[in-house]
Amino acid sequence: MKDCAQQMDQFLRDREKAFQRMDQTHAVRLTVMEWKNHYSPKYGRCYAEITSVYKAPEGSSAWYDELHDAFENRLVATCVPAFEKTTNRTCTVNSRNAQTEVDCDACRQFIDDHMRN
What pLDDT, on a 0 to 100 scale, did the predictor assign at position 52? Predict the structure, then answer.
């Protein structure tokens, strides 16, 4: 579990650097609103759940909950928070080989399962 917390720190540092580069090239701002890590005995993985808001130059914004495999630095799921479900955004669950669009409630349950078990 200590390794998971240490990996989360490294994951967040790497992510911050990547988004600083994206800010400079695409003028999109990312703000991490909340993050937490969890070692899942059920899945044998260290997960990072991150709630972020992306802001475009014209002022529009989008909130997302993301689940990452912290050791593989791999996006596992992207969900639209409940208060944003009226928008046309999609929710996805990613395997190693494919990205699948899913119901946003199912996506939230997927993240919750990985962060609790």
Answer: 84
